[in-house]
Amino acid sequence: xxxxxxxxxxxxxxxxxxxxxxxxxxxxxxxxxxxxxxxxxxxxxxxxxxxxxxxxxxxxxxxxxxxxxxxxxxxxxxxxxxxxxxxxxxxxxxxxxxxxxxxxxxxxxxxxxxxxxxxxxxxxxxxxxxxxxxxxxxxxxxxxxxxxxxxxxxxxxxxxxxxxxxxxxxxxxxxxxxxxxxxxxxxxxxxxxxxxxxxxxxxxxxxxxxxxxxxxxxxxxxxxxxxxxxxxxxxxxxxxxxxxxxxxxxxxxxxxxxxxxxxxxxxxxxxxxxxxxxxxxxxxxxxxxxxxxxxxxxxxxxxxxxxxxxxxxxxxxxxx
Length: 320
What we know:
The structure is a single chain. The two termini are 50 Å apart. The protein has a 4-stranded antiparallel sheet with strand order 5-4-11-10, covered by helices on one side. Strands 6-7-8-9 form a 4-stranded antiparallel sheet, with no helix packed on it. It has a 3-stranded antiparallel sheet with strand order 1-3-2, with no helix packed on it. It is an alpha+beta fold. Mean pLDDT is 79; it is low at 82-98. The protein is built from 6 helices and 11 strands. It has 2 domains: 9-66; 70-295, no CATH class. 14% of the residues are buried.
C-alpha cells in the first residue's frame, strides 16, 4: 500500500501547494518514484538517501511558495452618446478658493460612495467631469466591485438577465399563431473575465475578455426579439496600482414610442390615424476601468528559519 512505506522514507508536509502540483513541477533533485503521495493532498513521503533528501529540501523551498494574489478594482460606466471617448488623464487634484472644501465635495459628491477611488486614479478634473455626467444622467455606474484571484488564475464577473420565451407556430388549419411547449432563453448583460499573472517588478499581465449583449424590445411578430453582442479581447501589461481603461463597447438602440387616443387608437387600420409614433436612436458606450494590485503574502515560518540559519552560519559560528 502507499501508506506502508519502508523506514528509509521521510514524511514531508507542503505549506502552500499540493502534491499534484509538486509532481507537475518536480525539481531536478527528485524523480517521480521518490515522491510517494498519501491521502492528504499536502503530505507525501520522500524516498531517498539523506544526501538526496537534503538537496530536495533546498529545491522544495523554491517550489513550495505561496502565489501572489491580485486584487482587481473594477468600475464599469455606461456613457450616453459615446462620451466615454472623451477620456484623458489629469492628475491635478488641487482646488483653490475660499470655499474650496465645499466646492470639492459638491464637484465629486456622486463619487464618494464608490469603492473605486476615481480621484486617486485619474485626477480631480476627470472626477469632476464624471460627477457632472452622473448628475445629468449622461453616465451610469453599472459595476463597482473588487475581484481577487491568485496569479495565473482567472477572475470572472457576470451581470446578466435571462428572458424566457415560448416558441410559437402557425396552425395549419386556421393559420393562427399558437404557442408551443418549447421555451427559449435569451441572456443579455455584461460578462467580464480577467486572466492575470505577476511577473518581475510587480508587473501584471492580463488577458481581458469583455462581452456585452443586449436584448431588443420589438417582439410584436410573436418571435423572440433580436439580440446584439459586442466582444472585446485584449492582452495588456501594467504596473501594480496603475489603471487600465477599456472602451469601445458601443451600442445603438432604436426606442419606439406609440401614443394613441383611447379606444379609437385600437380600431384596425383606422386606428393608425389616432396614433403618434416616435422613434429615437440612442447611442451608449461602455467603459471598463481596471486597477490591479499585487498582494504578496507575509514571510513564512520556513523562510524565517532559513534566514536565521543563514545568519547563524555567517556570524554565529566560532571562527576557530
